[in-house]
Amino acid sequence: MNQISPLAFVHPNAKLGDNNIIGPFCYIDADVVIGDNNVFQNSVTLNQGTRLGSGNEIFPGASISTKPQDLKYRGEATLCEIGDNNSIRENVTVSRGTASKGTTKVGNNNLLMENMHVAHDCVIGNNCIIGNSTKFAGEVVVDDCAIISASVLVHQFCHIGGYVMVQGGSRTSQDIPPYVIAGKEPIRYAGLNLIGLRRRGFSAETIEKIRKAYDLLYSKGILKEGIAEIKATMPETKEIEYIISFLETAQRGIIR
Question: Cα(103)–Cα(97) distance, rounded to whole angstroms?
Fold first, then answer.
């Protein structure tokens, strides 16, 4: 049975699972689908197009599936899909998609800290930590296990690789490859995310291979030459393949 405050509004066409707690002054619109065991603290808004999994906790002032802040949006029916076991803190905003992709996606087990923004058509993976007041423009992609510190600004269409650590206050208009620390001003490669990799169970041998791959990449002035050197000299492990695939598909260039 759901626990719904008498001071909350739940549209009769919304579809709710079981054991959800909906606090006072929450607003749940039509065309919203919610799973089980979610906790909505007071003053949470779930707008049309929300598709929410189970086990999430959403804090006061958060607004999910907001209308995209994109002048090309013409009211088309789009979605905002959020998975399971996420913690979405105060005043977080997540826009729904546009005709470009149709859906904004947030995976599982993420922590979205206070006042951060996920714009239309973004794709956030699993096990990510996104810091206070960080802002993602439209169609940003963040891979699994990324840690992005507070007040980071990310340009539209950028791709942030998995297992990265991005320094607080950074601004990027280029892709950030996996496993690295990105920081300083202007933002650039600042070594491997050694602590993060060790915490995630990467062996010393694997970390050394990743380090060597980036040494080869950044020793070359031209990206294609660095990729060719990695392919020619490095073993075909899943980590090296991920790096190569990321580099070869980068749309905005990579931080140097």
Answer: 4
For the record, the structure tokens of 58 come out as 């959403």
Which residue out of 49, 107, 138, 226 is catalytically annotated?
138
Which is catalytic among the residues 29, 121, 143, 175? 121
Mean pLDDT of all residues belonging to the chain? 97
Helix (H, G, I), strand (E, B) or coil at 224: helix
Q: Quote the pLDDT of residue 222.
A: 86
Residue 159 is a catalytic residue = no
Please give the order of strands across the beta sheet that includes 21-22.
3-4, 21-22, 39-40, 57-58, 87-88, 111-112, 129-130, 147-148, 165-166, 180-183, 188-192
Instruction: Write the pLDDT tens digit of every residue in 167-219.
Output: 999 999 999 999 999 999 999 999 999 999 999 999 999 999 999 999 999 99
Integer Cα distance of 46 and 15 in angstroms: 12
CA atoms of 128 and 141, how far apart (whole Å):
12
Catalytic residue check, 138? yes
The confidence score (pLDDT) of residue 122 equals: 98
